[in-house]
Amino acid sequence: MKTPTTKLERTESRTAMAEHTIRCGRIAATLLVIGATTMLASCGSMNKDQMSTGAIPDDYRTRHPITLTEVEHTLDIPIASGDRSLTTGTRDAIAGFAGDYASKSRGNLQILLPQGSPNSVAAAHMRKEIRSVLAGNGVPAPRIVETSYQAGATGDTAPVRLSYVAVTAVTDQCGQWPEDLQNNTYANKNWHNFGCATQANLAAQIANPMDLVTPRATAPIDATRRSTVIGLYREGADTSTN
To answer: CB of 94 within 8 A of CB of 133?
Structure first.
Protein backbone atom coordinates (compact mmCIF):
# COMPACT_ATOMS: atom_id res chain seq x y z
CA MET A 1 0.00 0.00 0.00
CA LYS A 2 1.45 3.34 -1.11
CA THR A 3 2.06 5.74 1.71
CA PRO A 4 0.52 9.13 1.04
CA THR A 5 2.92 12.03 1.04
CA THR A 6 2.34 15.26 2.79
CA LYS A 7 2.45 18.70 1.21
CA LEU A 8 5.77 19.44 2.93
CA GLU A 9 7.34 16.31 1.56
CA ARG A 10 6.19 17.16 -1.96
CA THR A 11 7.69 20.63 -1.65
CA GLU A 12 11.01 19.27 -0.41
CA SER A 13 11.07 16.78 -3.28
CA ARG A 14 10.50 19.51 -5.86
CA THR A 15 13.26 21.61 -4.28
CA ALA A 16 15.73 18.72 -4.39
CA MET A 17 14.91 18.02 -8.03
CA ALA A 18 15.36 21.68 -8.92
CA GLU A 19 18.75 21.80 -7.19
CA HIS A 20 19.81 18.62 -9.00
CA THR A 21 18.76 20.11 -12.33
CA ILE A 22 20.71 23.30 -11.62
CA ARG A 23 23.83 21.33 -10.71
CA CYS A 24 23.57 19.26 -13.88
CA GLY A 25 23.12 22.41 -15.94
CA ARG A 26 26.19 23.99 -14.37
CA ILE A 27 28.27 20.88 -15.05
CA ALA A 28 27.08 20.76 -18.66
CA ALA A 29 27.85 24.45 -19.15
CA THR A 30 31.33 23.98 -17.68
CA LEU A 31 32.01 21.01 -19.95
CA LEU A 32 30.74 23.00 -22.94
CA VAL A 33 33.09 25.91 -22.15
CA ILE A 34 36.05 23.55 -21.71
CA GLY A 35 35.27 21.81 -25.00
CA ALA A 36 34.94 25.09 -26.88
CA THR A 37 38.21 26.35 -25.41
CA THR A 38 39.98 23.16 -26.45
CA MET A 39 38.60 23.40 -29.98
CA LEU A 40 39.63 27.04 -30.30
CA ALA A 41 43.12 26.23 -29.04
CA SER A 42 43.38 23.44 -31.58
CA CYS A 43 42.23 25.74 -34.37
CA GLY A 44 44.68 28.39 -33.27
CA SER A 45 47.50 25.89 -33.24
CA MET A 46 46.48 24.59 -36.66
CA ASN A 47 46.35 28.08 -38.17
CA LYS A 48 49.73 28.88 -36.65
CA ASP A 49 51.24 25.74 -38.18
CA GLN A 50 49.69 26.53 -41.54
CA MET A 51 51.01 30.08 -41.43
CA SER A 52 54.48 28.85 -40.52
CA THR A 53 54.46 26.36 -43.38
CA GLY A 54 53.17 28.94 -45.82
CA ALA A 55 55.93 31.34 -44.79
CA ILE A 56 58.61 28.99 -46.16
CA PRO A 57 59.58 30.33 -49.64
CA ASP A 58 58.79 27.94 -52.49
CA ASP A 59 60.63 29.88 -55.21
CA TYR A 60 63.40 28.35 -57.32
CA ARG A 61 65.16 31.73 -57.37
CA THR A 62 65.45 31.51 -53.58
CA ARG A 63 66.59 27.88 -53.56
CA HIS A 64 69.11 28.42 -56.36
CA PRO A 65 70.22 32.06 -56.11
CA ILE A 66 72.65 33.57 -58.58
CA THR A 67 75.70 34.83 -56.71
CA LEU A 68 79.00 36.46 -57.62
CA THR A 69 82.10 34.49 -56.75
CA GLU A 70 85.73 34.14 -57.79
CA VAL A 71 86.08 31.44 -60.47
CA GLU A 72 89.14 30.09 -62.27
CA HIS A 73 88.71 30.07 -66.06
CA THR A 74 90.96 27.64 -67.92
CA LEU A 75 91.80 26.47 -71.42
CA ASP A 76 93.79 23.28 -71.96
CA ILE A 77 95.84 23.23 -75.17
CA PRO A 78 96.84 19.73 -76.31
CA ILE A 79 100.41 19.62 -77.61
CA ALA A 80 101.87 16.52 -79.23
CA SER A 81 105.55 15.72 -78.69
CA GLY A 82 106.21 16.23 -82.41
CA ASP A 83 104.37 19.55 -82.85
CA ARG A 84 106.38 22.56 -83.98
CA SER A 85 103.63 25.18 -84.34
CA LEU A 86 100.05 25.80 -83.36
CA THR A 87 97.23 24.69 -85.63
CA THR A 88 94.69 27.19 -86.96
CA GLY A 89 91.99 25.80 -84.69
CA THR A 90 94.24 26.07 -81.64
CA ARG A 91 95.13 29.68 -82.47
CA ASP A 92 91.42 30.52 -82.81
CA ALA A 93 90.70 28.91 -79.43
CA ILE A 94 93.48 30.92 -77.77
CA ALA A 95 92.21 34.12 -79.40
CA GLY A 96 88.70 33.47 -78.07
CA PHE A 97 90.06 32.78 -74.60
CA ALA A 98 92.02 36.05 -74.75
CA GLY A 99 88.85 37.92 -75.70
CA ASP A 100 87.01 36.45 -72.71
CA TYR A 101 89.89 37.43 -70.44
CA ALA A 102 89.87 41.01 -71.74
CA SER A 103 86.17 41.39 -70.94
CA LYS A 104 86.20 39.69 -67.52
CA SER A 105 89.54 40.19 -65.78
CA ARG A 106 92.33 42.65 -65.14
CA GLY A 107 94.61 40.22 -63.33
CA ASN A 108 97.38 37.95 -64.53
CA LEU A 109 96.90 35.31 -67.21
CA GLN A 110 99.02 32.26 -66.49
CA ILE A 111 100.62 29.89 -68.99
CA LEU A 112 101.23 26.59 -67.19
CA LEU A 113 103.78 24.40 -69.00
CA PRO A 114 104.08 20.66 -68.24
CA GLN A 115 107.34 19.32 -66.81
CA GLY A 116 108.47 15.70 -66.95
CA SER A 117 106.03 14.63 -69.67
CA PRO A 118 106.93 13.30 -73.16
CA ASN A 119 105.68 16.54 -74.74
CA SER A 120 107.39 18.94 -72.34
CA VAL A 121 110.02 19.99 -74.92
CA ALA A 122 107.38 20.71 -77.57
CA ALA A 123 105.26 22.61 -75.04
CA ALA A 124 108.21 24.79 -74.05
CA HIS A 125 108.84 25.49 -77.73
CA MET A 126 105.20 26.58 -78.20
CA ARG A 127 105.12 29.07 -75.34
CA LYS A 128 106.44 31.97 -77.42
CA GLU A 129 103.79 31.43 -80.08
CA ILE A 130 101.10 31.20 -77.41
CA ARG A 131 102.29 34.47 -75.86
CA SER A 132 102.23 36.08 -79.30
CA VAL A 133 98.62 35.05 -79.93
CA LEU A 134 97.55 36.30 -76.50
CA ALA A 135 99.29 39.64 -76.92
CA GLY A 136 97.85 40.03 -80.40
CA ASN A 137 94.33 39.69 -79.01
CA GLY A 138 94.44 42.33 -76.33
CA VAL A 139 96.24 40.72 -73.38
CA PRO A 140 98.97 43.10 -72.09
CA ALA A 141 102.37 41.41 -72.14
CA PRO A 142 103.18 42.27 -68.47
CA ARG A 143 100.09 40.34 -67.35
CA ILE A 144 101.16 37.11 -69.07
CA VAL A 145 102.91 34.97 -66.46
CA GLU A 146 104.65 31.68 -67.26
CA THR A 147 104.86 28.88 -64.74
CA SER A 148 105.04 25.08 -64.78
CA TYR A 149 103.41 22.05 -63.21
CA GLN A 150 104.66 18.51 -62.68
CA ALA A 151 103.15 16.05 -65.14
CA GLY A 152 103.45 12.27 -65.29
CA ALA A 153 106.07 10.66 -67.49
CA THR A 154 103.47 8.26 -68.92
CA GLY A 155 99.81 8.38 -69.74
CA ASP A 156 97.84 11.05 -71.57
CA THR A 157 99.57 14.00 -73.17
CA ALA A 158 99.89 16.81 -70.62
CA PRO A 159 98.31 20.02 -71.97
CA VAL A 160 99.51 23.59 -71.80
CA ARG A 161 96.97 25.29 -69.57
CA LEU A 162 95.91 28.93 -69.79
CA SER A 163 94.32 30.23 -66.61
CA TYR A 164 92.94 33.43 -65.11
CA VAL A 165 90.65 34.27 -62.19
CA ALA A 166 87.61 36.51 -62.49
CA VAL A 167 84.43 37.36 -60.61
CA THR A 168 81.68 35.31 -62.24
CA ALA A 169 77.94 34.87 -61.82
CA VAL A 170 77.19 31.29 -60.74
CA THR A 171 74.53 29.25 -58.98
CA ASP A 172 74.73 26.12 -56.86
CA GLN A 173 75.31 22.62 -58.22
CA CYS A 174 72.33 21.21 -60.08
CA GLY A 175 71.18 17.59 -60.02
CA GLN A 176 70.74 17.34 -56.25
CA TRP A 177 67.75 15.36 -54.98
CA PRO A 178 67.79 15.61 -51.16
CA GLU A 179 64.29 14.22 -50.71
CA ASP A 180 62.05 11.53 -52.16
CA LEU A 181 59.60 12.97 -54.70
CA GLN A 182 56.94 10.51 -53.53
CA ASN A 183 56.83 12.29 -50.18
CA ASN A 184 55.83 15.52 -51.95
CA THR A 185 52.85 14.08 -53.83
CA TYR A 186 50.11 16.00 -52.01
CA ALA A 187 52.09 19.12 -51.07
CA ASN A 188 51.86 20.55 -54.61
CA LYS A 189 55.25 22.25 -54.26
CA ASN A 190 58.33 22.43 -56.45
CA TRP A 191 60.94 19.75 -55.90
CA HIS A 192 64.39 20.89 -54.79
CA ASN A 193 66.12 20.68 -58.19
CA PHE A 194 63.31 22.51 -59.99
CA GLY A 195 64.56 25.67 -61.74
CA CYS A 196 68.26 25.03 -61.11
CA ALA A 197 69.13 24.55 -64.79
CA THR A 198 67.27 27.75 -65.71
CA GLN A 199 69.21 29.72 -63.10
CA ALA A 200 72.52 28.17 -64.25
CA ASN A 201 71.83 29.07 -67.89
CA LEU A 202 70.86 32.62 -66.93
CA ALA A 203 74.06 33.02 -64.90
CA ALA A 204 76.14 31.74 -67.82
CA GLN A 205 74.63 34.40 -70.12
CA ILE A 206 75.54 37.34 -67.88
CA ALA A 207 78.41 39.07 -69.69
CA ASN A 208 79.07 41.64 -66.97
CA PRO A 209 78.45 40.36 -63.41
CA MET A 210 78.32 43.94 -62.14
CA ASP A 211 74.95 44.28 -63.88
CA LEU A 212 73.57 42.25 -60.95
CA VAL A 213 74.98 44.75 -58.48
CA THR A 214 74.22 48.13 -60.01
CA PRO A 215 72.90 49.51 -63.31
CA ARG A 216 75.31 50.88 -65.86
CA ALA A 217 75.76 54.60 -66.34
CA THR A 218 73.45 56.22 -68.88
CA ALA A 219 74.96 57.08 -72.24
CA PRO A 220 75.12 60.71 -73.41
CA ILE A 221 71.91 61.92 -75.02
CA ASP A 222 71.61 62.62 -78.73
CA ALA A 223 70.35 66.20 -78.61
CA THR A 224 69.68 66.38 -82.34
CA ARG A 225 67.62 63.20 -82.38
CA ARG A 226 65.75 64.26 -79.26
CA SER A 227 64.77 67.57 -80.86
CA THR A 228 63.58 65.76 -83.99
CA VAL A 229 61.45 63.32 -82.02
CA ILE A 230 59.90 66.05 -79.88
CA GLY A 231 59.06 68.07 -82.98
CA LEU A 232 57.39 65.09 -84.66
CA TYR A 233 55.49 64.32 -81.47
CA ARG A 234 54.12 67.84 -81.32
CA GLU A 235 52.98 67.56 -84.93
CA GLY A 236 51.25 64.25 -84.24
CA ALA A 237 53.55 62.35 -86.61
CA ASP A 238 55.09 58.92 -86.13
CA THR A 239 58.35 59.31 -84.19
CA SER A 240 59.69 55.80 -84.76
CA THR A 241 60.46 55.98 -88.49
CA ASN A 242 61.61 59.58 -88.97
So the answer is: yes
